[in-house]
Amino acid sequence: MSQNHEDCLALLEQIRWSGKPKCPYCESTNATAYNNERRYHCNACYISYSVTVGTLFHKTHVELQKWFVAIDLVLNSPKGITVRQLAKEIGVNKNTACYMIERIRKAMDEEPGLVQALIKLYEV
Questions:
Q1: Which residues have a Cβ under 8 Å from the Cβ of 10 and sit 6 or more positions away?
Q2: Considering the entire predicted model, what is its pTM?
Q3: Where are the beta strands (DSSP E) in the chain?
Q4: pLDDT at residue 57 tops 90
Q5: Which residues pair with 42 in a beta bridge?
C-alpha cells in the first residue's frame, strides 16, 4: 500500500465521517474547510480540528502510512510481533514501536470499529 499522508487522511475521513466532517468536540457538522490542509473550523464551537482528533492517531508525529502498516502487522501477525520487529519493519525506534503497539491494543478496546475498518480497507 503506497499512500501518502493526504490519501491516509482522506481514507480516515471516509471511515469516520462518511466524507462529511463532524466536530469531535460538539458533534456539529457545520464546518468550514481550511484551504490547502485537511483541517476544519467548527462554526458552532469555533474550534479547529482534523480527523485524527479523538483517535489513536491524535497528537502523534508518526506518519499515518506507518500507523496503517503497524496496525496490520500487530493484528495480523500469526504469532504476534515484537517491539523490535515492528520498529525494524516500519522504520521507527523501539520506544516509538512500543508506544504504537500500546495505542493499537488500547484502540482495539476503545474504538474497534475504526481499527477493523482500516484493516479491511488495508487488505483490499
A1: 38
A2: 0.86
A3: 31-33, 40-42, 48-49
A4: yes
A5: 31
Alpha carbons 10 and 92: distance in angstroms, whole number: 24
Reported as a pLDDT band with limits 50, 70 and 90, residue 34 is: very high
> Own/partner pairs for 10-17, CB < 8 Å, 24+ apart?
10/38, 11/118, 11/121, 12/51, 12/52, 12/55, 12/57, 12/64, 13/38, 13/51, 15/114, 15/117, 15/118, 15/121, 16/51, 16/55, 16/114, 17/51
Report, as an integer, the average pLDDT of 57-66.
93
Cell numbers at 120, concatenated: 479491511
What are phi and psi for residue 40, nearest 5 degrees?
-135, 155
According to the model, what pLDDT value does residue 1 have?
A: 47
CB neighbours (10 Å) of residue 37? Answer: 10
- The pLDDT of residue 124: 44
Number of Cβ atoms within 10 Å of the Cβ of 71: 22
